Amino acid sequence: MARRSQIWLLRWSFPLLLLVAVAPPAVPAIRSSQSLALLRARDQCSRGLTPAQRLHLDGMQFEDAPHVRHYIHCFWTRLQLWQDASGFQAQRIVQSFGGERRLNVEQALPAINGCNAKTRVRASGSGSGLGSGSQAVVDWCFRAFACVLATPVGEWYKRHMSDVINGNA
């Protein structure tokens, strides 16, 4: 009798075992707080863009155009990784993007700081001439960003952002 119960149990439980083995449960992707902050900034700063413009930016195509310049400034400012008076906050960028675990710090800090210094243009007269939100600041932010993109740090950034956008980070 015990043998018969075991056969009956196997007969009915086998299809259930197959279902569990064939169809793993769907697990929603868990995003880091840093990835969520990147997505929020991206969405907030692309509100006025056309779908085609947004697609280009999501594809890491940063042509020199007014909408791209404003998007870049908005994005980095919202993340609090750009300051209009001093440029990219290199140390904060490295820490925000995972620090030494994810970036070559010896490569990243000089690249970011060098691009800040190389692309900064001071207006004539007293002070820096780079008022908050002014076109000069927006242009500087874009030029510094384009400079960083031309370094290995820029390649890492493009890969990382693609992963974030596609739900892999």
TrEMBL record:
Signal sequence, renumbered to the chain: 1-29
Keywords: Signal
Pfam family, one: PBP_GOBP
InterPro entries: PBP/GOBP, PBP_GOBP_sf
Name of this chain's protein: Odorant-binding protein 8a
Species this protein is from: Drosophila rhopaloa (Fruit fly)
Source species taxonomy: Eukaryota, Metazoa, Ecdysozoa, Arthropoda, Hexapoda
